[in-house]
Design a protein that fits this description.
about 100 residues, alpha+beta, two-stranded antiparallel sheet, binds zinc ion
């Protein structure tokens, strides 16, 4: 599912715009905002996509650690989970930071 960062309405994975306020979910879903924040944070070294316990096979394939350059968008494209994609981003911090 996609949560709108503007009005917190939850829209299905296949919607491009928030069903309540019309925000572009490619840019304003909570996943999209988190993705942008992580990429902009110099302390974040890489990003892990963690999948839920009941993740579908497509999401399981997407699980793993990505560089900022290769980090895919969420929800996972082609997710077949009955409740929609439940994947999330988790930052991997630079441990050498003083
Ligand atoms: Zn909205
Ligand atoms: Zn899925």
């Amino acid at each position: 599912m996609q949560t709108c960062s503007k009005c917190f309405h939850i829209s299905p994975d296949n919607e491009l715009l928030c069903l309540q306020c019309g925000a572009d979910l490619n840019e304003y879903s909570e996943h999209a905002i988190t993705r942008k924040r992580l990429i902009a944070n110099p302390r974040v070294n890489a990003i892990r996509i963690s999948v839920g316990k009941n993740a579908c096979p497509t999401c399981r394939l997407a699980e793993g650690v990505y560089s900022k350059e290769t980090l895919p968008h969420l929800p996972v494209e082609g997710c077949a989970g009955p409740k929609g994609c439940e994947c999330s981003y988790a930052p991997i911090l630079d441990e050498i930071f003083p």
